[in-house]
Amino acid sequence: MQKRVLADLVEVRAGGIPGTNGTWCNDRRIALRFAQWLSPEFAVAVDDVLLRLMFGDAVFAEPINGVEPMISGGKAWYNYRDALESFGCRRGNSASRRKLAMPHCFRVFYGCNFITKEYFLALKSYYDWRNQYRQLVLPFSTDIEDVPWEA
User: Fold this and answer.
1) What is the pLDDT, as a whole number, of residue 53?
2) What pTM, to 2 d.p., does this model score?
3) Of 85, 130, 87, 88, residue with least CA distance to 112
4) What is the spatial distance between Cα 11 and Cα 55, in angstroms, rounded to a whole number?
5) Gap between the Cα atoms of 54 and 39, Å rounded
6) 23-51 b/e (C-beta count within 10 Å ≥ 16 → b)
7) Residue 76 and residue 117 in contact, taking contact as beta carbons nearer than 8 Å
């Protein structure tokens, strides 16, 4: 629960330029409640969407790393090649080895490999770690010729 001052949520403009005066809502949640109060039909439609989301009959999917999902069978699927490109991988990476290890995470749509959201996030975690590891600078020299020898 978020605590906010009413003045942060609603703005009242009296007078001024026509079209800019009135009561304005700065929070979408309040706008939704007001719209539901105005229209019982809209309120029922919102309730239907919420119930479908709660019981798994609908899916709310957001892009990850800029890759838009495709919805199929009530599940979000992400294009595998687009996912790899979003991590900075070259285009030639094959999915065959990964598909053998995790077949339930892959599906083919329109001749392209797609992966589940969970697998996408696991790959993202791996590539984030790998990219961070590559940028690691060692505090000592790894070249034997750089070691100062005492005579």
Assistant:
1) 79
2) 0.55
3) 85
4) 36
5) 23
6) eeeeeeeeeeeeebeeeeeeeeeeeeeee
7) yes
